[in-house]
Design brief:
Blueprint: H1 2-5, H2 10-15, H3 20-39, H4 48-56, H5 61-71, E1 76-79, H6 86-91, E2 95-98, H7 107-113, H8 120-130, H9 135-139, E3 142-146, H10 150-159, E4 165-168, H11 176-197, H12 203-226, H13 236-246, H14 251-271, E5 282-287, H15 296-303, E6 307-312, H16 317-320, H17 331-343, H18 354-366, E7 371-377, H19 381-396, E8 401-406, H20 413-426
Parallel strand pairs: 1-2, 1-3, 3-4, 5-6, 5-7, 7-8
The structure holds Double cubane cluster.
């Protein structure tokens, strides 16, 4: 991260409209966090070198790639949620990037337009834009939002006054008529991206995009499966980082690198090599997403000697555990398959959302977890209320559970550390 701050990319950042001095501060802060959180780990898989490199160039080389793509006429679509189908954007010739919303930034400006008691993810999303420090959002030709939670919906109206915005209406139940509505929304997104890129989606382009995004998810599934071993061959922090980077890295390159990481993890499992000693306490985390660079809870848990073995969240299994069917032969069938796969994501904005509860207990058992931490960002009503059902199902399944409500600040780190240590001692 620090290399990029020196000189190379300042002209590009300026051209993108960034506040370059504030951006330097952001890079320095995130770079410092990365060194403390990641590079201080021991016995990491060698293949993590790829993600270290990606992070060292997170606002440099990758932004340059987006810039070059756009200069050749390419279009970049920025998203904030798992429901926006990357396959559609890629099939129409665009690139899709998940936008940063994982750190506190410019809250003084944010709180002039949003209530203070808004969840950190939404405040961060707005803060990066209002603070002019995110080269990803400034590289996006179109933002695609979705009607998930109320806070995001209303914040998209404000973002839409600053940048081109397309909002998809996501139904909040999963009946046949909801699927029909969702499919129509996907077709509308496809039309919008096609008119922006000037490139029509074809059976061939859609088949290729389904295949390459599935391949990315398959690579992440291999990494996830390796974490069932005791000792776990990879830290939860490193596995979380892999999923976070999946949202914005070049797709084929990322897939290749993650398959190399999975090869190494599988070898480590065969050799009994782990990041923590065999028998270290194993924790499954469930809840709201942890957008880059939110590594707070994983760091606290793993510094306490336990290992995070899975994440039932949008920066975890919800992102990679389901694939789009690859058997369709017509464009209509492919769109059906995409609509079905995406509506099957289990977000708490749906009612009922029993699929998520089933996933939590299944994952806790498959991954040999000793306990579950249910993690929610403050003021996220849907996940906070769903905690009651998660808590009951996890306890009924025989697993201890702890609930954490937090945000992106470091103020509660000491208190969380004490609570996590007490939980780990108890399990
Ligand atoms: S599919 S979890 S990425 S909406 S934490 S902004 S819900 S108040 S992020 Fe999410 Fe899509 Fe669902 Fe996943 Fe609102 Fe809650 Fe904040 Fe949230």
């Amino acid at each position: 991260m620090s290399d990029s701050t020196a000189t190379d990319y300042r002209e590009m950042w300026t051209d993108l409209g960034l506040d370059v001095n504030k951006h330097d501060c952001l890079l320095e802060a995130v770079g410092g966090m990365y060194v403390d959180t990641y590079l201080s780990q021991t016995n990491r898989p060698d293949s993590m070198g790829y993600l270290d490199f990606v992070m060292s160039e997170v606002h440099g080389l990758r932004i340059k790639e987006l810039d070059d793509f756009r200069k050749q006429g390419g279009k970049v679509v920025g998203t904030y949620c798992l429901y926006v189908p990357e396959e559609i954007v890629r099939a129409a010739g665009g690139w899709c990037i998940g936008l940063c919303a994982g750190a506190e930034w410019a809250y003084d400006k944010v709180e002039q337009v949003l209530p203070r008691n808004t969840c950190a993810l939404i405040k961060s999303m707005m803060g990066f834009k209002l603070g002019s420090v995110c080269p990803y959002i400034e590289s996006a030709d179109l933002l695609v939002g979705e009607t998930t939670c109320d806070g995001k919906k209303k914040a998209y109206e404000l973002l839409g006054q600053m940048q081109p915005m397309h909002v998809m209406e996501l139904p909040q139940m999963k009946r046949e008529r909801d699927l029909a509505l969702w499919r129509a929304e996907i077709v509308e997104l496809m039309n919008r991206v096609e008119s922006m890129t000037g490139s029509k989606v074809t059976v061939e382009s859609m088949r290729a995009s389904i295949q390459e995004v599935n391949d990315k998810r398959r690579a992440l599934q291999r990494i996830a499966a390796a974490r069932a071993a005791d000792p776990s061959p990879i830290s939860g922090k490193d596995a979380l980082l892999a999923t976070q980077v999946a949202f914005y890295d070049d797709v084929p390159r990322f897939t290749q690198s993650m398959n190399a990481l999975a090869d190494e993890l599988e070898q480590r499992v065969a050799d009994g090599v782990g990041v923590a000693p065999r028998g270290a306490k194993r924790v499954l985390i469930t809840g709201t997403p942890m957008a880059l660079p939110n590594w707070k809870l994983h760091d606290i848990i793993e510094r306490s000697g336990a290992v995070v073995v899975g994440e039932e969240m949008c920066t975890g299994s919800r992102y990679y555990d389901k694939l789009v069917s690859e058997t369709a032969t017509t464009l209509d069938e492919m769109i059906d398959d995409i609509a079905e796969k995406y509506l099957d994501v289990n977000c708490a904005c749906f009612t009922p959302n029993t699929g998520r509860i089933d996933d939590v207990t299944r994952m806790a058992s498959d991954l040999g977890a000793d306990g579950v931490i249910d993690y929610t960002l403050n003021f996220c009503g849907t996940y906070q209320i769903e905690s009651t059902s998660v808590d009951k199902a996890v306890r009924d399944g025989g697993f201890p559970v702890m609930h954490v409500d937090t945000d992106y600040s470091t103020e509660d780190v000491g208190q969380l550390q004490t609570r996590v240590e007490a939980f780990l001692e108890m399990i």
